[in-house]
Structure formats: C-alpha cells, structure tokens
Design goal:
mainly alpha; 68 residues
Length: 68
C-alpha cells in the first residue's frame, strides 16, 4: 500500500511540473505574439507613410508636367 501512495505522489508531482512548464511556455508564447503584433503594426505604419509620401511626390511631378 505504501508503494502505491509513493507512485501516486510522484505522479502528482510530475503532473504539477508539467502544468507549471506549460503555463510558463504559454506565457512567453503570448508575450512574443503580442510583441510580434506590435512590430508588425509599426512596419505597416512605416510602409503607409513611405507609400503616401511617394504617391504625393509622383502627383506633384505629374502636375508639373501637365501645367508646363
């Protein structure tokens, strides 16, 4: 009977370690996902800015050519 209790306790400790490890990995996964989303948002904003500036530059060039 003592042996079964020992095995049960070892199994419970093992499961607690597994649950703790999964919680830690999940936390870092969510943290990295959030960081990736923030970086992607910054890249999109930069791209929109560059494209907008380039478009305005091209429009000004076309206006100069048309009005000459």
């Amino acid at each position: 009977m003592k042996n079964r209790g020992q095995i049960s306790m070892e199994f419970a400790i093992l499961m607690a370690i597994v649950v703790a490890a999964v919680a830690i990995v999940g936390f870092y996964y969510l943290k990295m996902t959030k960081r990736g989303a923030i970086i992607s948002k910054g890249n999109v904003e930069h791209t929109e800015s560059v494209v907008g500036t380039k478009a305005l530059s091209e429009i000004k060039t076309v206006r100069k050519v048309v009005h000459q």
